[in-house]
Amino acid sequence: xxIQTGDKLPNTELKIMGAKGPEAMTIEQLTAGKKVVLFxxxxxxxxxxxxxxxxxxxxxxxxxxxxxxxxxxxxxVNDAFVMGAWGKDQNAEALTxxxxxxxxFTREIGLTMDASGFQMGERSQRYAMIVDDGVVSYLAVExxxxxxxxxxxxxxAQL
Length: 159
Description:
Blueprint: E1 13-18, E2 21-26, H1 27-31, E3 35-41, H2 47-59, H3 61-66, E4 71-76, H4 80-89, E5 95-99, H5 104-108, E6 112-114, E7 122-124, E8 127-132, E9 135-141, H6 152-158
Parallel strand pairs: 3-4, 4-5
Antiparallel strand pairs: 1-2, 3-8, 6-7, 8-9
């Protein structure tokens, strides 16, 4: 069963790219006592993710943070090296590029998708959520194809 509004996020350990390489971060470290926008994409460097989804959050980062959001997290079932490189490519300094390399968090919240038809294996569905102190206060899961309900502009309207 997929995570729902009102549920607490599992305290999974994930990775971010730090100055000395991949660094472990837990969901609790990223969300405790904070208001966070967390959005997920099926894959780094893929067209919809690189051309539409991430750029929307990069361009609107100041607007989102002005609405009381402490951090904006982009999650993908990719490794920290890929997420770090993709963040640089996207000029995403205002975002935390979070690697769910093994897909463990994505499985725990029930938002996986089978992308094996594209030779990508198990990936994350496209979604966005607002998290208050580790609890989901808003969740928008994208129907297959496109970037709409999880776009930055739609999340801004929910803040």
